[in-house]
Structures
1.
Amino acid sequence: MAAPSQELVIVLDFGGQYSHLIARRIRESKVFCEMLPYNIPLDELTALSPRGIILSGGPASVYQPGAPVCDPQLYDLGIPILGICYGMQLMSVQLGGVVVSAEYREYGRTTLEILEPDILLQNMGSSQVCWMSHGDRVEKPPPGCKILAQTAFSKVAAMAHQEKKLYAVQFHPEVKHTPRGQEILQNFLYDICGCTGLWTMRSFIDNTCAEISAQVGQGKVICALSGGVDSTVTALLLHRAVSYQCTSIFVNHGLLRKGEAKQVLETYGKQFHLNLVYVEAKERFLSRLSGITDPEQKRKIIGEEFICVFEEEAAKLGKVDFLAQGTLYPDVIESGTATAVTIKSHHNVGGLPEKMNLQLIEPLRWLFKDEVRVLGEELGLPEEIVWRQPFPGPGLAVRILGEATAEKIALLQEADAIVNKEIQRAGLKREVWQSFAVLPDVRSVGVMGDERTYFHTVAIRVVQSLDGMTADWVRLPYPVLERISNRIVNEVAGVNRVVYDITSKPPATIEWE
Ligand code: XMP
């Protein structure tokens, strides 16, 4: 599928910690943006007809052996370019300027003195606050480039080659600590690249649906619906684009949260009239999990069984050509860029496309999670689904240590529902990344009334995170913890103790298994 916009700006990623943020800011300016590896061949790049190119920052030093470089012919294409930090230093060196290592890093808030605004720094007055984070600096700009701004430590803090439409800044306009950075980026996007800022979620929906229907033709599509926001939005887009040619399959493996299956059925079937196949597979999964205590084995069994059920249901539909799934842009970036450190498989339904000879449709592959949420709202999804927390594919099985039995699942569902009710009641629902209950394989002695008990312990896990890669435990107010604890021991039979998990990730993980 092609990039969903006529107005495309490309960020060439040199591995900077803020590269994703540049892409975000451009999209917030209603210009569609893609991030590509710095060494993408020139013909592939020009085939995309970008309106502008941004060279990101990066950790390398331009003179160090093996430092990442882009094709220098880039500067002669007539496409406007903005270099940021490392991108500026690289542009300088490649065009004949001089870069030197500073004695010490210029880091943090700095005053930018504007010498000549040109277009890039127009309407910025004579000085601005900007955010710097660099070791090297440009000592002498390349021939034909004029200095637009300086700071106390960087005599070339911004430069321009007007004729070639090449611009560069040493500071980071993409971070919030550069208060007017977004306007500087917009000066580049609108007044230098000539973008009009027409990219909105509405236009994304229209373009994506048109592309899906062209791709699918008369073919048949299946979509694995988990009830989470990504797969839901994917299913809704497919439904809009090709209607009943798409069948969504929702497998209830019995390891869902309390009331989740019912809610999915009501929302998708009744409210959105999706072509939905509901598969009640609880018994199947439970019997395969019987006696299994090893976490990895549990995951493997659930994954395999899921594929079996899914394949069986798909076979009932006759010949299927496509599998739609809710892969997001960060997954695409992670597995696609040369600078990425972690590579992970982003096949949500691992193994299926190859096995069943299916072509993939991934309509969300251009979007970040919060953009998917905006899209969900635009498509009319209820708030509970738009803001649903991430939930692992193997469900409650990875929150029950040891064997997952029907009795333990029911107990955990009750405790989990209380945790989330109380988090919601405290107004913290949108503040936390995930909040849930865990059932460790622990029983302890307690006393209830006059009786000694020997019941389960429930652990509470509430974490804050940006992407699930790292996380910190949330300092919940004591009254909230108190209510959760009281309600669980009073309302969930078989529990006499509640503990709070106060470990960050790393060293722990978010899930317990
Ligand atoms: P961990 O436990 O690795 O989890 O810190 C990081 C994030 O990933 C979710 N998670 C999963 N999601 N299938 C999924 O779709 C899985 O098998 C799985 N395991 C963990 C977890 O809930 C957290 O958001």
Note: Residues 336-347 have pLDDT under 50 and may be disordered.
2.
Amino acid sequence: MEEELIGIKNAAISFIFEADSAEELEEIKLQFLGRSGKLTLTMKEMGKLPKEKRPQIGVLANEVKTTIEEALANASTRFSAHKKAVIQKKIDVTNPGIKPSLGHLHLITQAIAEITTIFEHIGFKRVRYPEIEWDHYAFTALNFPENHPARDDWETFFIDQKADAKKGQVVLTPHTSSGQIREMERMAELSKKSGEPVNIRMLNIAKTYRRQSDVSHTAMFHQFETLVVGKDISIADLKGVLDYFVKSYFGENRKSRIRPYHFQFTEPSFETDVSCGVCDGKGCKLCKEGWLELGGAGMVHPNVLRNCGLDPKVYTGFASGWGVERVLMMKEGITIDDLRLLYSNKVEFLEQF
Ligand code: DAH
């Protein structure tokens, strides 16, 4: 009986090997494993064997059965639809491949990287300070008198939390200027320890928050703030950095200008402008008078220096605070119909940039 079983196995395997359709495999299965198949009938004969032989032959018969079943299962994959497709693809080497879709950095992330590089070239250091801040850093230390209506210009989000006796209420930073206070306090402290004079070239790019949401405003947006403090820092330095930034970011042919303005934390204060790229400063539909507004700047107010532990008789400085979304749109000459789209996660929109 042993030889018979091994013969059945060999026959079945060679038939399976030769088969070239799923139907043929089905027939082989019936022929060997079906109710009146060769293996089934042989197994029925086992009853006639002497008792001692039965277990050994039983094990062999089962092995033969699983071997045939496995061979059938393996062979059937040759004829499945999936396999056919893979084989065809392998054969047609001229088929164009499927390109994996590549993403890219968000428009604002790209702008932040570019702005950072420009300022780093002239020695500015990027810093990060809290986005959830006390009123002290966002307003009071920046020379906003207690309860002064100037606070209303910054439509601030207040955190529902008990105010600190000294530092006041907790807010979402409405501007990056709070970073000026943090930086000057930190550097004044360092200078005290080291005996070295204070020398600040800060670039603070961060998320800022205001209670505003319409087609041209988002509740969260980005600002980039510069602060330079040292001995003998003057308006000429401010103008030089402004001009360098304008030419690096917008193009060599663009000009910059400053004009008087008012901020609590700078004296004198300025609005900064860049010449219009469309009419080259002559005046057109876009800019009207040849200039586009960049944002605020000024010489750090003596009170602000004092609030941070710096002596205004020794140190002077300038600061500026501009909007990332704003300069980006000015540079690209794009108008986004609804600025809120920038942060809506709509891939169709973001893919355009
Ligand atoms: N913090 C001001 C704002 O959010 C912008 C600003 C103006 C920043 C003048 C400055 C500055 O550093 O000197 O509108």
Note: Strands lie at 125-127, 132-134, 170-172, 200-209, 220-230, 256-263, 266-275, 291-300, 316-323.
3.
Amino acid sequence: MKKRRGLLIGRFQPFHKGHLFVVEKILEEVDEIIIGIGSAQKSHTLENPFTAGERIMMIAKSLFENGINKTFYIIPIPDVNNNAIWVSHVKSLTPPFDVVYSGNPLVKRLFKEAGVEVKTPPLYNRKLYSGTEIRRRMITNDDWQSLVPKAVVSVIEEIDGVNRLKDLLKSDKI
Ligand code: ATP
Ligand code: MG
């Protein structure tokens, strides 16, 4: 039988437990998941500290660690800065998909206009499980580790990610 594939797009800066929860929910509905890494060309900024390659490591290791036993594809998607062609751009990079999962109103609108089925995944403790909150805690030395899968803690330690963020805060003025 034809496989049903779902697409989840995010920046995953970093991949956190909310993302993992939503991946597990999606895999209850489809046979295979495509995880699109948005703004893939961005890294080393306060909003987007991690490279696409680092984010791929975080996601793949988290899914293995949590025993995900369905096929997943992790695809970096650089920005095109042109909303009118963005859906075609995404389709040109990913395996074919039947449904898109997103809570982002612009993403939802663009896929809807392109005739693609869109579903809004449930949010899981959004106050805590948010990239913005995790990056904030990294800078203020608060507990961020409990908000991400263990594998993400290891990757961030390997790449010295917390010090990278702290360096990005500094200015060259005295
Ligand atoms: P940032 O604060 O940097 O925007 P984020 O936590 O919103 O980070 P994104 O990469 O922007 O992470 O998220 C991509 C998608 O993942 C969101 O549009 C949303 O659908 C889903 N998502 C994010 N956080 C959660 C959560 N806590 N529970 C369920 N889904 C989530
Ligand atoms: Mg977001």
Note: The longest strand covers residues 5-10.
